[in-house]
Design a protein that fits this description.
N-terminal domain of TfIIb, binds zinc ion
């Protein structure tokens, strides 16, 4: 369960970049124009240009930034972004539309979830479209694993989690 937040899958491997986030200084991961097209409304989409990166720091409110220091922040994208928003209502898999709450329900009811297997199967069958659908522009499996770990930790330590009454 100690997978890093970012797991590159063969279906959507993209280059990392060294352009740091102007807000937190972390290096982002380069995203393709098709990702930006689908997740940034105009006129911000035009302002950020074609060379932009996704900030992988969950604590940073910047979602996209470019080498000129232009940013698109949490709340400015068309959809909420998995690692930037911890609500149960947020998608953890954009291709097959699984929400964080779906993971939580499975784990609470069954102690485990087969959602990662469902996603893997979809990826193998070529039905994923992460570059276009996921604001991160890459496969969601790393985020899904991270969310599962977080939910399990919350359920194991109800005092620290949101589920204080139902754990
Ligand atoms: Zn940042």
């Amino acid at each position: 369960m100690t997978q890093p937040v970012e797991t590159h899958e063969e279906c959507c491997r993209v280059a990392t970049t060294t352009c740091p986030c102007p807000a937190c200084g972390n290096n982002g991961r380069k995203v393709k124009p098709v990702t930006l097209d689908n997740h940034i409304p105009n006129p911000m989409r035009e302002e950020i240009g074609e060379d932009a990166t996704f900030c992988l720091n969950p604590d940073c409110e910047v979602v996209y930034c470019n080498p000129q220091g232009k940013t698109v922040k949490r709340g400015q994208t068309k959809l909420p972004v998995t690692i930037k928003d911890l609500d149960d209502d947020i998608l953890v898999c954009y291709c097959f539309e699984h929400k964080r709450g779906d993971l939580r329900r499975d784990i609470k009811e069954k102690g485990k979830t087969d959602i990662p297997d469902q996603i893997r199967k979809g990826v193998q069958e070529g039905r994923c479209d992460c570059e276009r659908k996921n604001p991160q522009g890459a496969c969601c499996l790393g985020n899904v694993a991270g969310s599962i770990k977080q939910i399990q930790e919350e359920l194991d330590n109800p005092i620290f989690g949101k589920d204080i009454n139902s754990a």
